[in-house]
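Fig. S4 source data, part A: sequence.
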Amino acid sequence: MIPRHPPVFFASDLHGYGIGNTSWFDDMSPRALAGRCLLDALEYLCTAPKFAAKDWQLINANAARIVHQCLTDPALARHDIVDRVAPAIEEICAGIVASRQYCIPFYGDDYWDWASVVDALCEVQRVSRTAAKVARRELDQIRRTIQIRVPGELSTGDTAHEWFGPAVATRAYRLLDKRSPGFDADLRHELQTQALERIERGRYRGRQVTPWQIGWHYGQVVGEFQRAASEQAVELADFAWMAMPLEPGKRALVLARVLQGACAVKDRRTVLQALEELYRCETTARPFGQGIIGASVVASLDVLEALWPQLDQREKASLNAMLEALRFLHAKANTIGFLVERPEDIEGLIQAMGQGTLIEQRNAGRAIIRHPSFHAVICLGRSITEAASATALAVEEHGARWLIMPGQAHALGEALRHVSGGPHFSGAGPGALVIASSVAPFGIKSELQDALSVAEAPFSDGRSAIIPADPALHRLAHDAAETMLDEIGQFFEGQTVTRKGDCSDDAVLAAFPGALGADESAYVAGLICLSRSVPFLSIRMLADRAGHTPAAMTRNAACRLAVKIAETLGRRM
């Protein structure tokens, strides 16, 4: 239920929707940089394709782990956003486990990658069923393998892909120290010894280490062992490697690790220089989700991991302003449209939205709403022609990504209850709520042609056919209705027909046997949405021939259900 073409947001967009002083959103400060990196990670997590190939296992795992760690930090405590990204995290974990390799390392290119993926699976167990199922098994597997291999070295021997060096033992140490209860003392000592072993003359344990990778390794070693790695910390302050020709992405990765180590030992001079170089690397005009250099999210993840522990509680809490601005941008870009045929249904929708709803604009035929979970536009269309125009307005001017049409329909049959020794069945009569599985036209050819000329839909040949409800939106309505039985009563799913007022019930039922209700404009709204690839759903409360319904109608059941669907959509944005 996410849009087919996810919107793209930039730092400049945040200023228009932030609250209070938003100038620091693009400051050159650790807090602002961490905030931008967090937004990069969130946007990547929610909108980027999650490839299951080996090269993407590490990126996806780190994105899930770091976002979860930041959002669940007590200073930020954005569990509402964690709930929103939980489906993306589960998708990542399922893809990673499904692409598990058949030999060591089971994930990624080397032991560093493998340990990072297992760390992520352990971190997100509370929000991912897949991670909860496999995390303990994967942790035990890597612990046993490390215990066997560590007397030699944690290397796959693939010199073309692995970045072998002391950071590998450091990453393994960090994983087992944090995630494995009863970390074996001998194994701990051996991993720490290998991690603190120096890179001498460009070689580590007999293997060549590229000069620019030294900072990447030592930054992690110093970040983990701090005082025990004082000699490595001194080398972090040497930025001579910056003179080497290096692509921006790799440069940012090394700077992030240098920053991590310098922050851990409070080397202010090195911290400031690493930050200054990172600011130079950053592409401030990038779309969020593309990483600080505008090419890959990896650098943003590493910078965020380095900076987050260094922010104080107040600085972390202040990032809520950036999160709220991004959240509203998403809501506005995924506006939910409501189309109603009666003015009282506008009020019914607003009442159903409850407290915390802000009416941004309101006139006789339109209302723009900011709900805590979504952004919405409500448009009024009393006739077929007005409904066509209102639908086009909601989609084209207000950017509605979905259109829900709550309202009233005339019941085409009587409620018939069959009572026997077996199951009971009650037909859809006055007072019943209908979630339309499809909408059909009857006797409205001339009205439809007039409506299409107003809305400029590409169906000018006068032909018409049954339009099915959007399957995903219909299923969402069904699930929402199941949770609201005490509020809305029984509900039915079936076809409704848009007809002229002088068409008899018998004629309509002869053309569409089994149709549950007849309305005045739903078909044209569905047709306009179909022509613009916008998911459409009609929800109808059935009335009798005189337009009366039982007391259930006074509860605005159709409006309540429409709002419930919108709230569910809002949580998925």
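Fig. S4 source data, part B ends here. The longest strand covers residues 402-411.
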